[in-house]
Each structure stands twice: as C-alpha cells, then as structure tokens.
Amino acid sequence: MNTPSPLALVPFVSVANMMRLVHHIGLEEMLRELADYIEEDFRRWEQFDKTPRVASHSAEGVIELMPTADGELYGFKYVNGHPSNTRTGRQTVTAFGLLAEVSTGYPVLLSEMTLLTALRTAAMSAVAARALAPRGATTMAMIGNGAQSEFQSLAMKALLGIDQIRLWDIDADAMAKCARNLAGHGLRVTPCSSAEEAIEGAQIITTCTADKQYATILTDNMVGAGVHINAIGGDCPGKTELAPVILNRASIFVEYPEQTRIEGEIQQLAPDHPVTELWSVLSGASVGRRAASEITLFDSVGFAIEDFSALRFVRARLRETGLYDSLDLLADPDDPRDLFGMLQRARAPND
Ligand SMILES: NC(=O)c1ccc[n+]([C@@H]2O[C@H](COP(=O)([O-])OP(=O)(O)OC[C@H]3O[C@@H](n4cnc5c(N)ncnc54)[C@H](O)[C@@H]3O)[C@@H](O)[C@H]2O)c1
Questions:
Q1: Model's pTM, two decimal places?
Q2: Does the N-terminal or the C-terminal CB of the chain have fewer CB atoms within 10 Å?
Q3: DSSP 3-state assignment of 252?
Q4: Which atom of ligand 1 is closest in space to residue 83's alpha carbon?
C-alpha cells in the first residue's frame, strides 16, 4: 500500500494530546487564552454564517451538529447530551469537531472536543461574567457538580479572580468529587447541604445540572438583587433550570437569540421577550450591567462560534507543540479525477 501524500493528511488532536496540550499551557492560562479567542470572534460576529444548531432529539437525549464559517474557515462540532448516560459509565456530553479551509473545502484540523467543550464553555461563562457580574465578585455558587463544574469554577478564578466556590449537587458523590478535584487550586471550596445554602453570599450563581425536563434549580426567593446567574444546564427544548419568574426580574443576555429561544431558559417566555446579544456587549454596542442591584442572567446554551474559536486556538498551537497525529483522512489520487484508479492500484495481488 502506498503511503498517503501530504494532501491526504489532516492533523488530528486525540484526547491524549488534548490533555498534554492543557498541561503544557496550564489549565488556567488556557482558559484565559480561549476566552481571548472567543472575545475576538464575538467582536466580529457579523462576519460569521450563523444558524441554530441542527438537533436530533430522542427520548434519552439529543445529538447536535453545530456549524459556522467566517469566510476563511468553516467549522462544525458533533455533540450529544444524554443525562442518563452516567448510569452506564458514559458521559452526558461528548464531542468532536473539525475546521476546514473555505477556499478548498479541505479539512485542516480534526479534534476531540469533549474536553475542549468543557474548556470553551467555562471560558465563555467567564467572558460573560466578566462583562456582567457585579464588580469585585469573590464568591460563586456552583450548582450541579458534574463534568463541567471544575472547569466552570477555575475559569471564574482565572478570569475574574473568584476565590470561593460553594458547591451543591443532589448527588453527594458528585459534590465530593468536585471538592476533591478543586483542592490545591487556590480556591476556598465549601460543600453545602442545599442549593439555598450554596447561594448564601455568592455574587455569581452557576447552574450546571443535567436533567431532561423542566427542573427548578433556582426559585424566585433564592435570587437576591445584584447577582449574576450563569445558567448552563438548560440547553434543550423542554430542559430548563430557572423558575420563569426569575427571568422576568433579570436582564437577559444570550449568545444567538434564534437558537436560545428554542433551547434556553427563555423558551419559557414570550418569543419577543427582550434579550441582549452578548456579542454586542463585548463589542461595546450595548450596555451590560447597568446597576449594582440589577440581576443579570447569561442564558447559555453553547453556540457554534465558541467551538470555532476553540478549534482556531488549538490549530494555532499545533506547530509549536507537535501535539497531534497526521490522519490519513482524505483520498488523494495522483490524478484528482482518477479516484477509481487509486482504488484499483491499492488492491493486493492476492485479493
Ligand atoms: N451551555 C453550554 O454551552 C453547555 C456546555 C456543556 C454542557 N452543558 C449542559 O450542562 C449540563 C451539565 O453538564 P455535565 O457534563 O456537567 O453533566 P453531568 O451529568 O456530568 O453533571 C450534572 C450534575 O447535575 C446534578 N444534578 C441533577 N439535577 C440536580 C438538581 N436538581 N440539583 C443539583 N444538582 C443536580 C447531577 O447529580 C450531576 O452531578 C448538561 O445539561 C449539559 O447539557 C451546557
């Protein structure tokens, strides 16, 4: 068999190499750098092709494709969300993604994105909180202590200087795991005995639970004036975390309204309920927090541009780190129109 030609090869970042990349750069530094890439892309929002993600729902969960392009590069992510997966030793969310050159359509990067999604979601949360949370915030309540939770906590430390995390999960093992993992990272971590206890003294409340139904993680009386809510877990039709009355008291910031109105907390509101697009706050076109007493809500669902930014970041670090394999992904016949001839020549004499 001939060895693949250079045009056949696409850099592939495996889970093992992604973990090496994170440790090579340093987790908090990587979260800061991912945040910079996301901010850069959000500030040029109008250059991107945008569409709500394409979702395939089942009784157990959802499988989604998330495409976008900026004229130069095209990217997409495959991602699932299956809340009952953890019962069979699988994760709720797994993902991989690809970047391609718009000019030729040739892929330039294929990457694991389960870790990268946790990192980019955390970086996105911190970008939003940096723009919206009350100044001088020191304490975050982390409700839902699953796969995303440590990343969320460390991004708030890396970008906002949060130094206290108050944990709550209905599963004591998840809470213990999160507390254990966050030990030694320069945070004061307090496991709590209820969501109410966790939010005591917190200026930022992150909800990151997984349940395929309308859940009420926060009720109206739990949310005081001036807090910032970072709502991560409500990200599918029929899957929300906040009592609707909280939404009516909050200034709501979203990624891409066309997608968030289908998937986010605001699916509980009228389709014309006012929301502010986060990109316009980051670009300076809209105002973020207006008053110390205001409740701000980032109704996060995860948008394709964040994955595009994350893939762009990974691609920029490939050459310097060498942390990738070359994957024989694209058939590359000597004569581009002789795909069949290439197949025939590959036949072993005894086939
Ligand atoms: N917005 C985004 O960009 C984005 C990105 C990734 C994941 N998510 C969503 O975030 C959620 C969490 O993801 P994960 O990977 O951490 O899932 P996970 O299954 O690993 O963790 C979820 C945790 O929530 C806990 N939980 C469930 N109901 C609860 C309740 N009522 N109160 C307190 N805790 C509760 C569970 O015990 C579990 O520990 C999922 O719904 C996922 O779809 C959103």
A1: 0.96
A2: C
A3: strand
A4: 19
Please tell me the distance between residue 60's alpha carbon and the centre of ligand 1 in angstroms.
15
What mean pLDDT is predicted for residues 123-140? 98
Is the pLDDT at 1 greater than 60, yes or no? no
State how far the Cα of 29 lies from the Cα of 36, in Å rounded to an integer: 11
pLDDT, tens digit (0-9, with 9 covering 90-100), for 245-257: 999 999 999 999 9
Q: Choose which residue among 66, 119, 232, 254 to substitute to test ligand 1 binding: the one with the highest number of ligand atoms within 8 A of its C-beta.
A: 232
Residue 143 CB-half CA count within 13 A: 28
Ligand 1, CB within 6 Å, residue ranges: 81, 86, 92-93, 117, 121, 143-149, 168-171, 174, 208-211, 215, 217, 232-233, 235, 300-302
